Amino acid sequence: MEQYKEYHRHVWPEVTVRLGEVGITQMKIFLLGTRLFMYMETTDEFDMRKDFPRLTDDPKAREWNALMERFQQRAPEARPDEWWALMEPVFELQSTVVLPAE
């Protein structure tokens, strides 16, 4: 996974542009052992099942995805048409409480 991390330190600019074009405004990928978890913030219009596959409409993004798939395995729980499987949200905190500084 060291090579995967190295690639992500230098993501191709065409890929980051394409992510924005499909409606992804923020993305983080976390790694624990060999398990990857992706967190995304998107535009209100973004539809994961419709828009995420549009990434590969771009040749460079398609090349990037093919390269990254060498380091990944589909989750056993994923649907046959999913590479990054959707997860059910079970908790969200949006706190407006601000504690005074000590």
Helix and strand pattern? HHEEHH
Spans where pLDDT lies below 50 across 5 or more residues: none
The major pleated sheet works out as:
2 strands, antiparallel
Q: Based on helices, strands and strand pairing, what is the structural class?
A: alpha+beta
Instruction: Please compute the radius of gyration using only Cα atoms.
Output: 16 Å
Mean of all residue-level pLDDT scores: 86
Percent in helix? 25-40%
Distance between the termini: 41 Å
SS field, number of helical segments = 4
Beta content: 15-25%
Shape: globular
Strand elements, count: 2
Tell me the strand order in the biggest sheet: 1-2
Provide a brief overview of the structure.
Helices cover 31% and strands 17% of the residues.
What does this structure look like?
- The protein is an alpha+beta fold and 102 residues long.
- It has a domain at 2-69.
- It is 31% helix and 17% strand.
- A two-stranded antiparallel ribbon has the order 1-2.
- A hairpin with a 2-residue loop joins strand 1 (24-32) and strand 2 (35-42).
- The chain is globular, with a radius of gyration of 16 Å.
- The N and C termini lie far apart (41 Å).
- 5% of the residues are buried.
- The model has no long low-confidence stretch (mean pLDDT 86).
